[in-house]
Amino acid sequence: MKVAHKQNIRRVLAKVYGIFPSLKNSITILMYHSVNKNMPYSVTPEMFDYQMQILTRDYYVLRICDLGELDSNAMLQSRKKIAVVTFDDGYIDNAQYALPILKKNGIRATFFICSGYVNKKLDITRKFINYLDLKPLTRTHLQDLVNNGMEIGAHTVTHSMLSKLDCWQQENELVSSKAWLEDAIGQKVVSFAYPYGWPRSFNSNTTKLVDKYFDYCCTTIWRSNRFSDITKLNMKALSRIRIDAFDTQRDFLNKLNGSWDYMAYIQLYAKIIEQDLRNCQVLS
Length: 284
Ligand SMILES: [Zn+2]
What we know:
Number of domains: 1
Number of helices: 11
CATH class: Alpha Beta
Number of strands: 9
CATH topology: TIM Barrel
Bound molecules: zinc ion
Largest sheet: 7 strands, mixed
Structural class: alpha/beta
CATH superfamily: Glycoside hydrolase/deacetylase
Radius of gyration: 18 Å
Helix content: 25-40%
Strand content: 5-15%
CATH architecture: Alpha-Beta Barrel
């Protein structure tokens, strides 16, 4: 199925779902990978700048590691909503293009880094053709990000599907990436993002290990994090909304207002729906 067709179908569903959303008390965590003017699947610097301006205007923008400090009462009474900007994997353009725009807009973000990629032990872009041959950040870049107020989180060593590894291998992925990153930046790493991040990409062993080594954990379950009491929000299973190259300005605003949150239902309960749509050849 072509990506543009998929996006069109998702827009139609968002229009229907968008009639109902109510995100008064919510934390919207955005997930980016690459901001780049030369890669067709990357968010352009111009679009990223527009998106950051919207966030600066309408949201309190925090890092993942700040979420535990939130005051429930203050947030419930506030007119502004909360957003978090995250990046996954550790592509070099995060420092080249995204960092200057984040700084310009006064936004502090969280970067989940795959340590084996940044350490040049493996090239994860072989797995993700969207970002083929993109170079990784360096240790110096990581330090520069931290010096500019950004948070570094872990994203395993090899970007493996954790549910396919045994418990010992999973623990090694978590512990080794955390240790390498802490050595690189000279700070504690408290946040983690599951590679792939959808429900079947991790299992009960993974969640136990994450609980042991990290204070916060992000999935890619696609919805806003709604709460009536922030202290009851599960910081080890935070949902995120993916932003990518095919998002128009309208798409971005609709993703922020919750219209695309129906995607979580597709991920969690209705893999069958996508399969059926494929079978019906509606989208091909
Ligand atoms: Zn990743």
